[in-house]
Write a structure and sequence with these properties.
mainly alpha; 63% helix; three-stranded antiparallel beta sheet; 6 helices; Arc Repressor Mutant, subunit A; 153 residues
């Protein structure tokens, strides 16, 4: 869908929504191409959080990816079924669990990073470094404004 349309500031929610829809679909297709069938972008968020931060409690991962504990539990169950994460009792707190990547997930890290880079390259095509910094700064400010309503975070 190529468009020369210039969106107005009043259409920001629509535009952000379309970028998210496209990104989700792109990631779904790419993950399926690489044999990661049945995983959503939310599953990918869990994996990326663990790639970046290593073994963590479920509460920390929930905070990092902006999901509630019940949602994270469902995501982790699927990732365990796919042998991508292991859940173990937290030795420091018997009421919580730690999540860590399996060897199989570690083998997929390079491929996952490649998919992520491919999406970012597509999104930022023809953007200068200054443009990337500006859009990130502005969207971060919008995100911080939205977080004040404590709907998800």
């Amino acid at each position: 869908m190529q468009t020369d349309k210039v969106f107005t500031p009043e259409q920001i929610i629509y535009l952000i929504s379309k970028i998210k829809d496209f990104s989700d679909k792109f990631l779904d297709i790419e993950m399926q191409k690489h044999g990661l069938l049945g995983l959503s972008t939310s599953h990918g968020s869990v994996l990326f959080a663990l790639y970046k931060h290593g073994k963590q409690s479920m509460n920390v991962i929930a905070d990092l990816i902006g999901k509630d504990k019940a949602t994270l539990t469902a995501l982790v169950k699927k990732l365990e079924e796919k042998n991508l994460v292991k859940k173990t009792k937290n030795p420091d707190d018997s009421r919580s669990f730690l999540l860590e990547l399996t060897d199989e997930a570690m083998e997929k890290q390079e491929m996952m990073m490649s998919i992520s880079k491919k999406l970012k390259d597509l999104i930022y095509k023809d953007f200068s470094r200054k443009d990337k910094v500006a859009i990130t700064r502005l969207l971060t400010r919008s995100f911080e404004n939205m977080k004040k309503y404590k709907i998800y975070y």
